[in-house]
Q: What sequence folds into this?
């Protein structure tokens, strides 16, 4: 039979997307990354078709003996690079990881103190997201606009007054370390637990370029496995508290996850090994690139937040583009030139500005993985200037972007392997 037209359309859309995002564009979305070909090879395995409810060696299905082995190994590797005693990889996202922890630490009607939205709190920390869905009352810490961070002194007084069940640090758009070691003792003194959402900076944590929240007093570290940690999409929970960990682990299934997408496991294990051997170099270059991009943008006339603080300690750069027409317009113009960023609320934006905020959030982790360094950040800043300040036609700059990107198509910070032999070893000929 001839192939249905719908199938050709599916193939065409997928192929066009792959070419656009992997070959022809500069991706600066702060919440994304790319896996190595090796990690992608093990990701495309028969595990993707299977079920394994429950925990390793305590399943509700047969046929899982190798799932048990790979899940155990992946947890061991992740715990090793994170310096955590207990690891659970079953959450299918960072938000699900947060939900499982929040559900155990508080009951509906209880209070949680979160980092201020201006300092980067993720929606899952708020009454509009997971916290609200669980019926937990959100109380926001005060914000220090000068430090672009939690106001520590005022937060201490708030925690002592409210006596919440837990506090949450870490988040989404945040450029500087949240004060874990300053606030954890205060939280513990009133019986509260500390949850650190490291979704964005987890790769920097394991690369030793960001303080480890567990070492600074956090009771739980939750994370995504696909941002500065360049793995498959998914979530993870870490803790050094055995009693609390066991309670949370019992909650993940069946409360929030049934089957936990098993093809993530070998891919996550591979990336954990990549980060064990190459993570320090990768994380260090991410931070160098973020600072270099911030400085280059300022030199070209952009307003980059946090200048008096060194712009950033993370992979992110926040740019105020009101003078260039606002975040929505700027992001669209850049996309038309194959530069992918996201519009973003800045600390001084009202929530009502969400559809057209003042800023752009930029992340350098994916382009760093493709081998870009400080000098390439200069080139990217030039593209920004041409499009947003010089107002050149995006379609013309797009040609320059495509030509520039041709030099950065190979994933770095991974093992040098013969991929054909690896695929044979994985029995991929059978799968294909």
A:
């Amino acid at each position: 039979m001839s192939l249905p037209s719908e199938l050709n359309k599916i193939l065409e859309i997928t192929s066009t997307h792959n070419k656009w995002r992997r070959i022809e564009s500069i991706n600066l979305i702060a919440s994304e990354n790319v896996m190595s070909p090796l990690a992608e090879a093990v990701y495309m395995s028969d595990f993707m078709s299977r079920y394994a409810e429950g925990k390793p060696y305590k399943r509700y299905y047969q046929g899982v003996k190798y799932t048990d082995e790979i899940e155990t190994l992946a947890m061991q590797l992740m715990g090793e690079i994170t310096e955590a005693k207990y690891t659970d990889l079953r959450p299918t996202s960072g938000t699900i990881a947060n939900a499982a922890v929040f559900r155990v630490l508080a009951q509906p009607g209880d209070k949680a103190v979160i980092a201020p939205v201006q300092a980067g709190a993720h929606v899952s920390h708020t009454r509009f997201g997971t916290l609200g869905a669980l019926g937990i009352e959100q109380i926001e810490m005060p914000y220090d606009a000068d430090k672009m961070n939690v106001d520590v002194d005022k937060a201490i007084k708030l925690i002592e007054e409210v006596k919440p069940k837990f506090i949450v640090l870490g988040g989404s758009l945040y450029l500087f370390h949240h004060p874990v070691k300053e606030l954890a003792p205060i939280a513990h003194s009133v019986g509260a637990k500390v949850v650190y959402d490291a979704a964005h900076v987890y790769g920097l944590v394991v690369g030793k370029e960001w303080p480890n929240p567990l070492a600074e007093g956090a009771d739980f570290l939750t994370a995504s496995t696909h941002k500065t940690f360049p793995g498959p999409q998914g979530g993870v929970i870490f803790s050094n508290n055995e009693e609390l960990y066991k309670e949370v682990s019992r909650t993940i299934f069946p409360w929030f996850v049934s089957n936990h997408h098993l093809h993530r496991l070998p891919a996550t294990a591979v990336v954990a090994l990549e980060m064990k051997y190459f993570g320090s170099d990768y994380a260090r270059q991410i931070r160098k690139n973020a600072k270099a991009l911030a400085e280059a943008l300022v030199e070209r006339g952009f307003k980059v937040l946090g200048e008096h603080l060194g712009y950033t300690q993370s992979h992110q750069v926040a740019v105020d583009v009101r003078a260039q027409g606002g975040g929505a317009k700027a992001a669209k113009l850049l996309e038309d030139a194959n530069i992918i960023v996201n519009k973003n609320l800045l600390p001084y934006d009202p929530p009502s500005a969400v559809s057209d905020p003042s800023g752009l959030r930029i992340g350098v982790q994916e382009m760093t993985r493709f081998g870009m360094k400080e000098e390439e950040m200069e080139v990217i800043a030039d593209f920004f200037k041409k499009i947003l300040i010089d107002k050149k036609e995006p379609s013309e700059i797009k040609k320059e972007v495509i030509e520039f990107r041709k030099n950065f198509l190979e994933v770095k910070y991974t093992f040098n392997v013969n991929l054909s032999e690896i695929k044979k070893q994985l029995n991929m000929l059978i799968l294909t």
Summary: The chain has a mean pLDDT of 96.
